[in-house]
Design a protein that fits this description.
The structure holds two protein chains of two kinds. By secondary structure, chain A is an alpha+beta fold. Chain A has one helix at residues 23-38; strands at 2-6, 13-18, 42-46, 52-55, 64-68, 71-73. In chain A, a hairpin with a 5-residue loop joins strand 3 and strand 4 (52-55). Chain B has a domain at 85-226. Chain B has helices at residues 27-58, 63-86, 105-117, 121-130, 174-187, 189-195, 204-208, 216-226; strands at 133-136, 140-144, 149-153, 158-166, 197-203. Chain B has a five-stranded antiparallel β-sheet with strand order 1-2-3-4-5, sandwiched between helices. Classes of the chains: A alpha+beta, B alpha+beta.
């Protein structure tokens, strides 16, 4: 089960879950993903080499996509 | 609001786009900034040592004034190092949001769980002990807190302290704040350093003694990782 989560005041919130072949759940996840990006969130997926990659379209083949807020200089 | 789909090359941090005038740091530019920082510190501190020595040469009875001048020259680099050390806020420390009366324990626990999932066993253990996350990068070994980050450069002797935070943290729990900075660092290390503001660059020993005692082992581990 793949998940789209948002880091927020509750710790994190699962916005969508989907499995391979469940097109309705995938479509809901894509809509949720776009809504969050439009609200200013940034999305990333972790890679096996320890890096993370910024994603601008929901990668449906990933297990976990994390939405975070922008950072800034202090 | 940052639109990551606008003017940001693939693989770059979205937050870098509005900062187009800033140079993306590299090992070479960090060395250059470090040398400039040292030169500036020397330029501000040395005159006080010079003035003290001149007074003693002129009249040994001015010893108290000369001593005050020497102290002034000593304090300036210490203040810079202190600024660098306090720019990094360890989780669970005195300045942590998790210590505020308004902190939500359930949220803190959930955030810590997710942060733990992002880390390896040793890093998780170091975080529990020190409140800082150690992350190895191409520029050196990073220590990430709720706010701010330290970069121990190759060799382990020099530390750069960076002011960086979540733009609009709201009431995010401590673990989430660290996770935000860690993810951004992993997404684009040079971009992370572009967004952050350099607060101090200098000797690791100078910063270490200004850090909370609990966080010092994290700097030791980062120095080991950078050697």
């Amino acid at each position: 089960m793949a998940r789209l989560i948002r880091l927020d005041r509750t710790g994190h919130t699962t916005l969508a879950e989907w499995t391979h072949g469940d097109e309705a759940a995938q479509e809901q996840a894509v809509q949720a993903f776009r809504r969050e990006l439009d609200a200013g969130m940034l999305a990333s997926v972790s890679r096996e080499d320890g890096t993370a990659e910024v994603v601008r379209e929901l990668p449906l083949d990933e297990e976990l996509v994390v939405l975070r807020r922008p950072i800034a200089g202090g | 609001m940052i639109r990551p789909d606008v003017a940001t090359p693939a693989g770059y941090l979205g937050e870098v786009a509005p900062l187009w005038w800033r140079e993306r740091p590299s090992a070479r530019t960090l060395r250059r900034h470090g040398r400039l920082w040292t030169a500036w510190t020397a330029a501000t501190a040395t005159p006080f040592f010079g003035a003290g020595a001149f007074l003693l040469w002129l009249e040994p009875l001015t010893f108290p004034v000369a001593l005050a001048s020497f102290a002034h020259g000593w304090v300036i680099p210490e203040l810079y190092a202190r600024r660098g050390a306090v720019s990094v806020v360890p989780m669970g420390g005195r300045r942590s949001v998790s210590r505020k009366p308004t902190a939500d324990e359930d949220a803190e626990r959930a955030a810590l769980g997710l942060l733990g999932d992002l880390l390896g066993h040793d890093t998780r253990e170091l975080l529990a002990r020190t409140g800082l996350v150690l992350e190895r990068g191409r520029l050196g070994a990073w220590l990430v807190g709720e706010q701010g980050a330290m970069l121990v450069r190759s060799g382990g002797r020099r530390v750069d302290c960076w002011c960086v935070r979540i733009a609009d943290p709201g009431s995010l729990p401590a673990g989430d704040r660290v996770a935000h900075l860690l993810l951004a660092l992993r997404e684009d290390e040079a971009g992370f350093a572009t967004v952050a503001n350099l607060a101090f660059s200098g000797a690791a020993w100078r910063v270490r003694r200004r850090m909370p005692k609990r966080a010092r082992p994290a700097l030791d581990a980062a120095r080991d990782a950078a050697r």
